[in-house]
Amino acid sequence: MIEKIRIGCGAGFSGDRLDPAVILVEQGELDYLVLECLAERTIALAQKRKLQNPQAGYDPLLERRVELLLEPLLRKKVKLITNMGAANPLAAADKIIEIAKQKKLHVKVAAVIGDDVLTSIDQTAHALETSQPLVTHGALISANAYMGVEGILEALQTNADIIITGRVADPSLFLAPMMHAFGWTEQSYDLLGKGTVLGHLLECAGQLTGGYYADPGKKNVPDMAHLGHPFVDVLADGSGMLGKIKGTGGMINLDTVKEQLLYEVVNPHAYYTPDVIADFTTVKLIQHAKDQVRVSGGTGYSKPDTLKVSVGYQAGYLGEGEITYAGTNAVGRATLAGEIVKERLRSVLPDVRVDLIGQNSVHGNAFHRSEPYEVRLRVAVKTSDANHAALVGEEVEALYTNGPGGGGGVRKYIHEMVGIVSTLIDRKLVKPQIIVKTS
Amino acid sequence: MKLYNIAHSRAGDKGNTLTLSLIPYKESDYAWLCEKVTAEKVKAHLQEIVKGKVVRYELPNIASLLFVCQQALSTGVTTSWVMDAHGKTLSYALLEMEI
User: Fold this and answer.
1) A320 shares a domain with A263
2) What is the mean predicted confidence (pLDDT) over A262-278?
3) A263 and B68: CB-CB below 8 Å?
4) Which residues of A touch B56 (CB under 8 A)?
5) Separation of alpha carbons A186 and A183, rounded Å
6) Residue A268: closest C-alpha in chain B
7) Across the A/B interface, how many CB contacts are shorter than 8 Å?
8) Residue A137 is assigned to a structural domain of this protein
């Protein structure tokens, strides 16, 4: 009977730092490493890459992360569980096998598939966010169901070294190895609730150890350039001890843990995952020692009958242009510049957003204080026409010679937008499957 | 006094919904925060940003409040045209509140 497992989280989003995971594997005495790299929009973008190339569509940093981690993972006997498969877990598994062969390493990889429900979804079903039929939002690109632990549990039974998934609920990446190690059943709701709390705390990696937290003078965090990512020692009763590697930067205390416990939670009494409905209000936290917080409590209820499906659609283009003004009356000149661009675009693009970065671009004018010394004008439009999106940057650039005095540093951007809406699907229609490959 | 002096906050996003935790540095300030920082007050404070309703959850176990703010992110992160599409900076807008 296993008494304790240690799970580390070495990445909390697709673009996360590479080195913390290596440190966790080399020095962390881990049983499992989780890399959580998939946001809602990421999978839709990955789906677009897969449409252009059937061997693409996995996480863009997969190769670099695996190059760094593969040898230490095998040497230290740490199992990797990651959703870096994105829209194409099978191609990701092939790539890992290819890297292992180059390194002359023997590895067993299990790909978990079955989350792609684009062909089986009812496109006339209403989106949860807008109550409009899915198809009315734009051409659909992707539809991925949030799967739970089932596929990962099956993969764990094959004794694979690496388990690579597509869309799986983030906490399930952590809950599956706990269920596997301790023999928790699908009906042990309180244990699944506790495990989900721990998974939720870890899934954003550095956000538990002082990242997205520090505020110098008020909330000081040491050595953030070398922020250590967290691990948790999970006991069979579902309680856990959060920790980090000695010598790494960052910190874990009650405040960092509280902030992360409530992060992106829309109802702390009922946190829905495919595995359980967890209650976060019963969680108890105790600072055990420096950089160690004990997590207990947490409860759960029977899992929902439906799974959430994240649906990606083509949402047109975002066009942006920026220019900076500085010195006396910088705000006056930037404001005039914004009016000029608006007037120039009015016949084609009547709806234009104008921000003064440094003055009102993120919190509006409600808390505005003194005038800044320098200010950056930003003009933005949303449009279905790429050429119209480009007009914004062109008009901002033309301010150099046609606009107010002293405007500099123009940047212009066109960004193809992929929108995301959600719907629900009967969970019986989503069947996880695993495919095992070896080098 | 600003909320900033006695509490901290983290912003999160789910679609067009913004979540803001509010955590006193001293757990003994929790009851006072519950009394002073109501959902109505947060809604009024963030009226330029939050277009929908604000729901407050109390978590006495961890001496923290959670505000769930609907229609706050200009249609949501994927199709937003604002600078901070996630609303990550908005925790500090909450902390500007005078109490």
Assistant:
1) no
2) 98
3) no
4) none
5) 10
6) B57
7) 118
8) no
Instruction: With a cut of 90, say whether residue A366 has pLDDT above it.
Output: no
What is the per-residue pLDDT for B80?
A: 92
Predicted local distance difference test score (pLDDT) of residue A1: 79
C-alpha to C-alpha distance for A211 and B10, rounded to whole angstroms: 11
**Mutation to test the A interface, candidates B30, B81, B95, most A Cβ within 10 Å:** B81
Say whether both A225 and A359 belong to one domain: no
Residues A268 and A402 in one domain: no
A294 in the same domain as A385: no
Same domain as A283, residue A267? yes
User: A217-254 burial by CB neighbour count: b if 16+ within 10 A, else e?
Assistant: eebebeebeebbbbbbbbbbebbbbbbbbeebbbbbbb
Name the residue of chain A whose CA is nearest to B79's CA.
A419
Residue A383 falls within a domain, yes or no? yes
The model's pLDDT over A307-353, given as tens digits with 9 standing for 90+, comes to 999 999 999 999 999 999 999 999 999 999 999 999 999 999 999 99
Question: How many domains does the structure of chain A reveal?
Answer: 2
In a domain, A418, yes or no: yes
Q: Are residues B23 and A255 in contact, defined by beta-carbon separation less than 8 angstroms? A: yes
Could you tell me if A70 and A189 lie in one domain?
yes
Residues A348 and A283 in one domain: no
Per-residue pLDDT tens over the stretch A405-424 = 999 999 999 999 999 999 99
Band (pLDDT 50/70/90 cuts) for residue A240 is very high
Contact between A69 and A23 (Cβ < 8 Å): no
The answer to whether the Cβ–Cβ distance between A363 and B89 falls below 8 Å is yes
Same domain? For A358 and A434 the reply is: no
Residue from the list A215, A254, A268 with its beta carbon closest to the beta carbon of B57: A268
Strands in A271-272's sheet, in edge-to-edge order, are: A271-272, A277-279, A299-301
Domain, as residue range, for A190: 4-118+144-303+428-438
